[in-house]
Amino acid sequence: MCGIIGYLGKQEAEPIILEGLKRLEYRGYDSSGLSVGDKNKITMLKSVGPIENLEKLIATNALVGNWGIGHTRWATHGAVTQENAHPHTDCQKNIFLVHNGIIENYQQLKEQLIKEGHRFVSETDTEVIVHLIEKFFQGNLEKAVIQALKLIKGTYALVVISRDDPEKIVVAKKSSPVLIGLNGNEYIIASDPSAIVSYTKKIIYLDDDDVAVVTKNGIQFTNLNYEILTKKTQTLEWNLNEAQKGGYPHFMLKEIMEQPQSIKNSLAGRVIEKDGIVKLGGLENIKARLQEIKRLIIVACGSSYFAGLVGEYLLEEYAGIPTKVEYASEFRYRQPVLDKETAVLFISQSGETADTLAALREVKRRGVLTLGIVNVVGSSISRETDAGIYNHIGPEIGVATTKAFTSQLVILVLITLFFGRERQMSFSLGQAFCQELYSLPALAEKILAQRENIENLAQKYKKYHNFLYLGRKYNYPLALEGALKLKEIAYLHAEGYSAGEMKHGPIALIDKNFPTVGIVFQDSVYKKTISNLEEIKTRQGPILALATEGDEEIKKITHDVIYLPKIKEPLMPILAIIPLQLLAYYLGVSLGYDVDKPRNLAKSVTVE
Ligand code: M6R
After folding, report:
1. Domain span including residue 133
2. CATH number for the domain including 126?
3. CA 436 to ligand 1 center in whole angstroms
4. How confident is the model at residue 241 (pLDDT cuts 50, 70, 90)?
């Protein structure tokens, strides 16, 4: 989704803003722009399409000055045009503003402003903010911004500069992330920490209704009532290498290949094999409260939701806790039955997904215990949940999640052990889990070594336009995630289904042109899944199977097999998703798509 960057300091602002915009590209965008200020002059350039188009404009228009703002836009209100790209400016071209979020009452505000004589040039909701600021501006930018914010309904992360109040940047936030990086007397503002990690690791996150005024003398934080706030500086643990491709052609492939290490990082310091238990620092303080919990609800979106489905099987089977998984976008508008014996667990890589955040706020309002599994340290969901566990896998840049998904599964196993060992799980079972968790990184390496084989399979299967992914029990959510990867990256129609449910409808689709990816390990549902695949074979459907090493029988019904090492059934999804990620990746690449910038998608969905 849209990206924001701002800079104020001693250096030329343009190259720093441009670099930040490039680092934000992965979030998805369709146009970009920047405004750079020099004494009492501000120059603005905007263009549609890739950032290279903006660079071409910069090459022929000198942008001098050491403060400014930039933006990558992902269209919501209004088509992809230069006029609709950010920054937006007022009638006098005095104030320049970039915005992430949605202004819900913009129509009404726009009509009023037009009556008052303001001239609009774009179809965006954002432009009303800059005209409102113009209306209230009397020489002090932050005052005008605060007056404007009081009339706005909706969500925003906004960054504003003005020719008539120079060398100052005003930043404000409501429900859309924004942070300020500090480097001596230089300040860099961004919607996403990965955009500034090359520049500084010291950051301050804004909270809702905060306003920051950045000048060469420092930053002043206030709320909308002008009360001064003291904010905490945090240190980013990410390093620059993690935010670069490191020799791989795509971030997606780099992150797939990083999984042995990211799994290790998610486990590090948390598994105590000799006692068959896990230690989760983030939950220690509320251990007593957790013992009273009789029911869990997991709330998430997209792949994080699918990880939650695996969690449901795990928590019910091994910890004996009744668990339910809900899409955040549905949950937030329902009247869920919640009580003091229920805890709600929110799963989010970014920690900023709008629906998940809104659901979290509703649950908190009702006084129920909230937990989080979040990757981005300091993100809104990580800050607002009562307790939680970080993934510790560094930034995930690829729009299609890979290493975050496997890490979410690992942490769900850890949570199951945490609850399970306090309840029904035996010492020996706890210990067996711990041992197998430690074996995951090496087994993941083994699967990644089959990369070339999977690339060849992608060549073979790229002629098909529709795919069915089937799995049962722990592998059913995996079928959903495998199919999602294919849709996102290779733009191929794919349906994830429970293998047993397939005969209740989707089987009608099967013919020689409709291949099935069958996830069929030698586990508690092996025989049943084999029967389901037989039904596909009978109807001439091509089958590509994911099977257990040494299973020769499977070859009798499938056309192709990817073999995976054996591990405990509930841990299998952590390994088995890897070949499905690779298959989607190679299909996307062989069909000629830019897998790091899949069309219409955004890394972090911060609008509803
Ligand atoms: O950051 P979150 O985990 O909250 O994001 C949730 C979904 O938007 C995300 O998993 C999405 O489905 C990915 N594109 C999947 O690859």
Report:
1. 3-236
2. 3.60.20.10
3. 27
4. low
